[in-house]
Structure formats: C-alpha cells, structure tokens
Specification:
Elements (H helix, E strand, L loop, with lengths): L1 H20 L13 E3 L5 E3 L8 H7 L4 E4 L3 H6 L6 E2 L5 H8 L7 E5 L3 H13 L4 E6 L10
Parallel strand pairs: 3-4, 3-5, 5-6
Antiparallel strand pairs: 1-2
C-alpha cells in the first residue's frame, strides 16, 4: 500500500511540474511561438517584444503589423508610431482587410492591455497564429503620434 501511495505522489508531482513548471507565458499571450522567422529567415525572440521596444522590432521586420484596438477618438489622441487603428468592436470584420496572411506577425495594444487581450483571442480564433498582445499604451515611454 505504501508503494502505491508513493507512486501516486510521484505521478501527481510530475503532473504538476508538467502543467505549471514549463510555462512562462502570460495569460494574454496564449501559446505564442517563442521564435518567429521573418522573410529573411532571421530568428527573433517574439516573446521579448513589448510596448516599449516594438518599434525596434518593426524597423527590422517591416512585414509585421502594429494594431491599436482602442476607439478612434483614443487613437487620434495619441498612438504609437506606425500603428493602424482597428477597434476591438471591428477587429473580427476588418482584420483581413489589413492582414490577409494569417502567418504574419501582428502586435496588438490598447490603453491597458485588456482590449488587446480580447482582440488576441478573436484573432487566434480566426487562425492568426502570430498575434501578440504587447499591453497598454499607459506603459509606453516613447513619443506618440497624433
């Protein structure tokens, strides 16, 4: 009986390690790839991209997209350079007008990261495999465009 209990404990601990120990992704990122291959086959650590360094990534990867999912009024009030505005309300119907290739890298942001998290879930459901929530503009330290 003690051997069975010991084996159950080992199995249970192993399951916990597998379920919780191997994942470092945030809830908003779902299961993004840790690396992405650009058109020039240069490997880039996608998970290291955030709202404050996304412009550096975009300079080296001009085929990636930056989408602000806030309202039009919020966007006009100030947005990240090179961002396009598709509101969360319209993202399901408008994303294919801007990004037809579902393998392209898409960075999403909003004010705090909540709406961009919802947009990420929508895009994943539509088959966009490289969509990434980079958070909210309230954390951005650079200059905004108006």
């Amino acid at each position: 009986m003690k051997k069975i209990i010991s084996k159950v404990k080992i199995l249970f601990c192993s399951m916990l390690i597998v379920l919780f120990g191997g994942s470092c992704s945030t809830p908003d990122t779902l299961s993004e790839p840790s690396e992405s291959t650009t058109d020039t086959n240069k490997k880039v650590d996608i998970k290291s991209v955030n709202i404050n360094n996304v412009n550096n990534y975009l300079k080296d990867n001009p085929t990636a997209f930056l989408i602000d999912v806030r309202t039009e009024g919020e966007f006009v009030g100030g947005h990240l350079p090179s961002a396009k505005n598709i509101t969360l309300h319209n993202i399901r119907n408008k994303i294919s007008d801007l990004v037809s290739d579902k393998d392209k890298t898409i960075f999403l942001y909003c004010r705090s990261g909540n709406r961009s998290g919802s947009a990420l879930n929508i895009l994943k459901g539509l088959g966009y495999i490289n969509a990434i929530n980079i958070g909210g503009i309230i954390s951005y330290r650079g200059k905004v465009e108006k």
